[in-house]
Amino acid sequence: MRLTILSLLQERELCVYELVEILQTSQPNVSQHMRKLKDGGLVKEAKKGQWVFYSLNIGDKPYLHELFQHLPSKKKEVDAVSCEKLNCCD
């Protein structure tokens, strides 16, 4: 699941509820995976009000760029959700 999350974040910054919708899992499950990825230095979070948004943090890890070239695109899944459609993060 964590590689899928990284592939999703390669497309754009996502809020936790967008990730929940795409991954079809619970918010606590997503948050647990995000905590591990954040602890590993692979993602960063930004709080906007009560909402948490996640983005990749791999600029200082050039060795990961080749890995990301081999991950399948998740653009279609990311484009299908938005905070506006989910009525969250306002």
UniProtKB/TrEMBL annotation:
SMART domains, alphabetized: HTH_ARSR
Record keyword Cell cycle present: no
Molecular function, one GO term: DNA-binding transcription factor activity
Residue span(s) of domain HTH arsR-type: 1-79
InterPro entries to which the protein is assigned, alphabetical: ArsR-like_HTH, HTH_ArsR_DNA-bd_dom, HTH_MetalResp_TranReg, WH-like_DNA-bd_sf, WH_DNA-bd_sf
Domain of life: Bacteria
Keywords per UniProt: DNA-binding, Transcription, Transcription regulation
Pfam families referenced in this protein's UniProt entry, alphabetically: HTH_5 (PF01022)
Identification of the protein by name: Transcriptional regulator
